[in-house]
Each structure stands twice: as structure tokens, then as C-alpha cells.
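quick one before i forget lol
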Amino acid sequence: MLHNLLSGLTVLGTTQGLLYLFGGSIIGMVFGVIPGLGGAVVLSIVLVFTYHISLIGTICLFLATGAASYYSASVTSILLNTPAHPEAFAVTFDGFPMAQRGEAGRALGISAASTCLGGIIGCAMVVALIPLVNQLPGIFHPPEFVAVIMIALLLVGTLGTDRVSKAIISAGIGIVLSSIGADPVTGEYRFTGGAISLIGGISIVSLALGLFAVPQMVLVFGTATTIASQDMMGNEVDSSLAAVRLERGFGRQVIQGIGEAFLHWVALIRGAIVGVVCGIIPGIGGFAANFLSYGIAQQSSRRRELFGTGIPEGIIAPEASSISKEVGGMIPIIALGIPGGIFGALYVAALTIKGIQFGGNFTKNYPVLPYEMIWVIALSGIIGTAIGLLFSPILARVTRVPGPLLVPFIMCLTLLGPFVADVSFFSTMEALVFCIVGFIMRRLRYSLAAFAIGLVLGPTLEDNIWLTRQVFPGFSLFGARPLADVLIFVAIGILVLKTVQLRSDAKKNNPPILEEDPVRRAEIVSERFMQRNPYPQLAFIVSLLLFCSSLGFSLYAISAYSWKSALFPVLGGGLTLLGAAWRLPVDFVAFRHFLRMRPARREAAARPVTPLEVDPVSGRRRLPVIINKAWGVNGQYSRELFALAVFCLLTLVVFLFGYLVTEPVFVILYGMFATRRSLATLRGRIIYSVVGSAAMWYATYEVLNLLHLTFTPIVRL
């Protein structure tokens, strides 16, 4: 083990490895401070370049980008009370109150030291666990792999949605799409429609960019506010609290904060351990790990009543688990090839592109690779934290950049990325389709994580289902593999418990109705029902389409392919059909209910309201509702539809005229006509348009030239 550990560090000592390590750390630091652009969005963009760089470059760039983003995400939590990532929410509880007292430097120092040291402790723990990974292949056989993948899909999927049925649908869609292309068992082509580009399956880069990057930009454009006033879903958050200014003596405060992290070493180690344990369990890490660490620290502290007022332990606990949970997430990836979240799914996709095969004898086939991963995470955490701490004042100003100003550049990169990765404009069209699908899924709160993981793990799941059927025909595996039986029951238990939990939460959020007037009582019941089922028209149409398409998909698979090739698509289609059948009656009732509302009341429900607003029909005060909200706050939904239409049109124009012509022109037009809310003066819009278009042209030219790629447009100017 020691030899492999030192070998991993030696490989990273190359010039190439160091450049990618520093480059990824800087990218993660810069993008991590911008809400909505860190995490999956920036990693999906980085995924594009893995096709054209070495394996060690891919590991350094990808892991360094992810690990370095965590401290910079906490900068906005402490200075602006606005988390850049969901994981940084827990830091706001004590970080912002401490900064409001004039101790911003102290809070940032505690955060930096805790993030860095927690990551190092987590890396040390995982290094000790890696030798045990070799024992897992002897325990896990195909039935256990199938059960573990089911658990991962359910755990991850149910964390990101408000209905279990939506998690099932999301996972089913991902499995269905993973079956497109050549069947790994029989070699038969499935659902390609004669398109050569689909023989190799769905492009992972197109999926990542279309599913995460563009929908986020559409939501940003819809709210038309500064980035710091938006949460991860693009909704407006409370930005009434003024940003904290960095006072004199900032450097001394930072040093004091770093020292305090060492003084509270128990909270530091405990937070790192919680992070590693949560990271090892698929679907538990991320958002849950930071809050769990904070909760444990509060309950075990003698000063629990001071949590939330700005004490060091309240910052140390969640920050110590930030990087350590990602390190812990490497264990299921190394041992079983199963990612625990979106970060892991994209990382598995990146290494799969480089020909790495996960699961089984991973540590025997690649003895040094796991240690390289651990070294990259540890070093990038140190580098990203150090650079982030140095540039904290500048990073705080970056969050003030109006979000819509970044929209054209992300859209252009999203169009360029799939072509660069696959050298095919067909992949760009795939990104367009996933953009629309991703936007609808986010609006209806389907699980993007379950969708992405279902697609990435689909081939692995299909292989193990086939092997299970070969070794254990019928249902003979039950009883023959006790561990598989236990894991399957765990998966079923997760499904049941999550359903019970969601219903319990619904009851807590809807206290008994005390209204005596039967008419008003019926109205309150109606409003609560619509609150639980927003966007009834869109939800009903989507459920109906999912039901019909999944049924047709399954029937076509049965009739067109041999039973060996049809088995897996029918499984995915069956899951989607089951979830859609579950959702369809509820969405139909909500849709019918919405149509039966009186026109005057429908218009009243379409406007955002406050708890004190008077109902124009009954004259009584109304509860706040979110019934479809028509065109949203200040035309939010119309702006979102406009942004989607622009992206569709941009894709068509790129196909006709090419990247080098279309993308700079698009930036100019966008800057002159779509930035009036962000840039009030004509001079500002002209400068933005000229500088932005020149930068976009240069970046596009350099990327195509560097990779020796040429796109031939249909129309030559």
C-alpha cells in the first residue's frame, strides 16, 4: 500500500499533472463562488475536455475542479448570506452572524482551515480503507450488484424530488435511454432509427450539458436578477440583508480563525468522519452530510443554545465534511463502480471515456489509480482553499455580477461542447433535446440525479441482470444469495419509508383547517391541493406523454427485438410506466380542478400573493398559493420560454452558418437587446457586446484549432 501511495504522488509530480491540478483548482474556485454554476454545471463543461487529454490530466482536472469549489461556495454564505451550493446552506447559520459582528475574516479563516483539514483527514481515512476494497468483489456477485444499483437509484433519486413516483420515473427514463445503441449481450442495435451516431448510445457530454447547464441559465434569465439573489433552482431568495464589508485587520482575523479551527479539533475530526461515512453510502452525501454534521455538533455541544449566533463550531462542523464526503464517495466508485451522486456519476463517465472499467478487480487492475485520486483531492483542496482565501474579497464581488450577463457564454459553450467531444453535430442536437427535458424536469421537480445515474449505470445494470438470469434462472436467486435478498428488502424499505416520510411532511405543512365557513373551507382545501400539485397543465401533459411513450416503447421492444435484447428496455419502460400510472390520476385531478376554477379566481391565483392579500371574489384574506403563476413574477415564465426559444434558434443557426460566425454574432445581439435590465446605458451594452463577442470568437477558434476540428456549415458566407 505504501508503495502505491508514493507512486500515486510521483505520477502527480509531472509538469502535466501539476498544470491540470492548478488549472482545475482555479476553475473550481471561480465557478464555485457563483450559485448555480458550480457543481454539476462546471463539471459537465469540464467533461468535454476529457476526450482530448490524458488519463492523469482527466483525473487532475476533474477532481481538482470539484474539490476546490467547496470553500469558494462558502465565501458567499459567510459574506452575502447566499449559499453558492446546497451544501453551503449550513454554513450560513453561524458564518453570516459572525461576519455581521465585524469578524468576516475570522469566519473565512475558520471555514478555510476546516474545509482543508477536513479533506485531509477524510483522505487519510479512505487511504486506510482502500485495502479492504479488494475483499468486496468476493462478497458482491451479479445479484448483489443489481440490488446495490437499485438502492443507489432510490437513495439518490428520492433526495431530489417531492414524490417517490417522480424518482421512479426519472430512474426509468435514464435506464430507457441507456438501452439505446448496441446491446452489450447480443450486439443487436436498439432504437437507433438508422442513425449511425446512436450506435454508441447517448452522449454523456450532451446529457450533462443539456440537463444541467442550459436549464440553469434559462432559470437565471427568467428571474433577471443578480446571481447572489438566486438559489440553486433559480428561484429568488431573500437578499434584503446587506452584504458584509471586509473591515481593516482582515488578515489578522483570518489567522485567528485558522488557529480556532485547530483549537476545536474534536468538532473538526467528528465532521470529517461524518462526511466520509455519508459519502460511502450512495445518495446520503452532499446536502445531507453537511446538515447531519452540523446537527450532531449542536446536539453534542455544551453550548448548543449558541448555535446559530455565530460560534466557531457552527462553521467547523459542516465545513469539515465538505471535501471529506467526496473522498468517501470514492469508495463505492472504486469498489463497485457505483457513484453516490451527480458528482460521482459524471466522474465515472469521465473515466469511462478514458477506457477505465470500474467494479470487480479495480484495485488489482489499477493499483496506483485510487491513490492518485486521493492525492488529487487532498492537494486541490489545499490549493483551492489557499487561493480562495487570498482572493476572498474579489470572489465576493464576483457574486454581484448579474446572472443574465453570463447566459450567452454558457449557451455557446453548451453548443460547442458536444461537437468538440464527439466531433458530430448530432451530439449538439442531443444537448438541445436534453435541455428541454431537463428544464421541464426541474420545473416539475423530477430527479435529475436519478435520471443521470440511471443513464450512466444502465450498461452495468444490464450486464448484471443478464448474468443473474444466467446463473440463477427464474427466481432461484432468492435464498441462494442471502446478501442480495437483504439488499433488495433494503431497497423496498427505502421506497416505503420515503413514501411515509413525504406524507408525514405533507401533514405537518398542512395544519388542521379552523375555518367554519364551508365555502371558504372548501377553497382552502382546494388551494392546498394545488400547492402540492403546481403547474397542473404541464404536469398532466407530461404524465400522459410519459405513460403513452413508455407503453409504446415497451411494446415496440417486445415486437422488434429478441427477448434477450428486449428485456432491459422493457424493464426501464416498465418503471417509467409504473411511475406515470402512479402520477397520472393525481395530475388529472389537479388539471380538472384547475379548469373548474372560475375565471376571476383563476386570474387571482395566477398572481403572486402575500398572506395579507384580499381575495377579489370573496373579500376574505387568502393564503399564499403557487397555482401555475401564469407568467410568473415580472414575466419570469415568458422570459424562460424566450430563453428556450433562443437556444433552439441558436442551435439551428449554428448548424447553418457554423460556430465561428454564429456565436460572436449571438453575443453581440444578446448584449444589445437582452441586457437592458442589467446594463442600463447604451455605452455599457456596446462594450459588453464587443468585448464579449471578441472573447467568444477567440475562445471558439482556439478550441477548434487546438483540437484540430473543423465544422462545415451548410451555408457558406
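fyi Confidence is low (pLDDT under 50) at residues 228-243, 604-630.
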